[in-house]
Amino acid sequence: MAHIALGVDETLFPGITGPMIYRPETAKPLNDLAEVLLRGPHTMSRGERELIAAYVSGLNECRFCCGSHSATAAAQLEQGMCLVDQVRADLDNAPVSPKLRALLRIAGAVQVSGRNVTPALINDARRAGSTDLEIHDAVLIAAAFCMYNRYVDGLGTLAPSNPQAYAYSAKRIVETGYRA
Amino acid sequence: MAHIALGVDETLFPGITGPMIYRPETAKPLNDLAEVLLRGPHTMSRGERELIAAYVSGLNECRFCCGSHSATAAAQLEQGMCLVDQVRADLDNAPVSPKLRALLRIAGAVQVSGRNVTPALINDARRAGSTDLEIHDAVLIAAAFCMYNRYVDGLGTLAPSNPQAYAYSAKRIVETGYRA
């Protein structure tokens, strides 16, 4: 059970959904940010951006966010959950483009600290073809999930153990987005 | 100089302001979130909420955010920068209420990981008189600054060394808020 009384049945509204119902004033900008970063018009696909979110959530050991964004990435990537699992288990050898790998490395640095993003990591991303906007958004997606993950776990919310729960919520996000 | 070309003179638009001009689509929800959390109607004063932001930014060693939110806290606290410095240097002995100290301890736990927020920390906050909403917002302010700090430093933006720069920006924030 969450640390505070969210006023919802947590088995129906697990993870971030309970706190978002509890505090709609903060839910709005949180959802707006996720919508722009993960679903807005972009040179990176929605699946690739969700993969960055899932990767960072895994590094933060946030079960709910990692489950949710892994499922949402998988639903929008041709290679599905197999690729998500490979990236999370062994980024160096996962079958992603050099550009996406370089952006995931930047995201991994951000997860530890913004100050861990080195000119060498930025240069690697550039050499692999990343634009300034892609670098900006990789940094901000990683930073944002350092927030969402801490929000979800800092309130001690429920993380479903059944993968079906995440697949169901992913289907809803793919169809209607974060603002719905 | 920042890791990407922000298209602004960084001496005029340091820290988070450059990336916000560069990417207005993400700046909007980021500013909306800060406005609700740090300035919206609340049982915690604006100064107290800025103090949580400054404390977490200090723990994350984010010079720009710590300078900016320390100045904004100081401008809205009766005891000014002296209190901000005491809280940052020695929370256990700083002259704050037991309630604010307990909420700052929760924020400090969130800075490390959401999973570090223990039932004992929550119970201490409750015993000191914290409401569920105050606990919720302390967690989310701390989580949000784990994002803002990583965004600012992950892009390698400029942090002014002159305290006057932060005092000037604090005055603007106190007068017009984060959405201006």
Describe this structure in words.
- By secondary structure, chain A is mostly helical.
- In chain A, 66% of the residues lie in helices and 0% in strands.
- Chain A contains 9 helices and no strands.
- Chain A has helices at residues 17-22, 24-39, 46-59, 63-74, 80-89, 98-112, 119-127, 132-154, 163-176.
- In chain A, helix 6 (98-112) packs antiparallel against helix 7 (119-127) and helix 6 crosses helix 8.
- The longest helix of chain A has 23 residues, at 132-154.
- Chain A is globular, with a radius of gyration of 16 Å.
- Chain A starts with 16 loop residues before the first helix and ends with a helix.
- In chain A, 52% of the residues are buried.
Relative helix content of chain A:
55-70%
Number of β-strand runs of chain A: 0
* Structural class determined from secondary elements of chain A: mainly alpha
Using only C-alpha atoms, the radius of gyration of chain A works out to 16 Å
Sequence stretches where pLDDT stays below 50 over 5 or more residues of chain A = none
> What sort of overall outline of chain A do the alpha carbons produce when their principal axes are compared?
globular
Query: Biggest protein-protein interface?
Result: A-B, 49 and 49 residues
Number of helices of chain A: 9
Please trace the helix and strand order of chain A, writing H or E for each element: HHHHHHHHH
Largest sheet of chain A: none
Question: Oligomeric form of this entry?
Answer: homodimer
**Average pLDDT number of chain A:** 97
Distance between the termini of chain A: 25 Å
User: What share of the residues of chain A does DSSP label as strand, in percent?
Assistant: under 5%
